[in-house]
Amino acid sequence: MMGKRLRFEYVALSLALMACGTTQYMIVQGGKPKLEIKPDSATLVIIRPTNYAWIRPIDNYLDSKMIGRTSGKSYFVTLAAPGTHYLFARAKATAATKVNLEAGRVYFIAEPQPPGEWGVRGGLGLMTLEKARQEMEECEARAYDPSHPGPDLEAQDQNEAKEAYEKAVAAGQHPEVDLPSYRGYDAL
Fold this sequence. Notes:
Layout: H1 2-21, E1 26-28, E2 42-48, E3 58-62, E4 65-70, E5 74-80, E6 83-90, E7 94-101, E8 106-110, E9 125-126, H2 129-138, E10 140-144, H3 155-170
Parallel strand pairs: 2-8, 5-10
Antiparallel strand pairs: 1-10, 2-5, 3-4, 3-6, 6-7, 8-9
């Protein structure tokens, strides 16, 4: 009986310690942040709506600058300068997509992780306001920790992901082809 209890406690402690590693560069927020329209910047909300592969973090970059990290059922909010940017999601591989961000708008971006994707490939897709609200209620809110910033995306990884994205778009094969025309929301 005592041996089973010790094994259970060891497994529980191990899982808790592994989970702590997935929040590196991030601060778990006590409550849900209030989303606001900012007239001089775009607001990005990156949501990982599934618990699948929760232990494997996905690092997120705007152009080459890290903006946050997700693990299962989590999201974060960040501000961005208006203009055309590349968003990158890096897990085992790096996925890229292009977005045109406008000041005064909020963009909801999903990081779906379908079962069977054991390698945890980063991926990005758009979300409706209704779906984003639902997922944000079920997910843990986090904030990027500027006192412990993550590394920027290396130029080689950035260029390879951009090239793969552009080739897929040219061939009509990129699943996130709608993101460049996604306008987000100007009212919440």
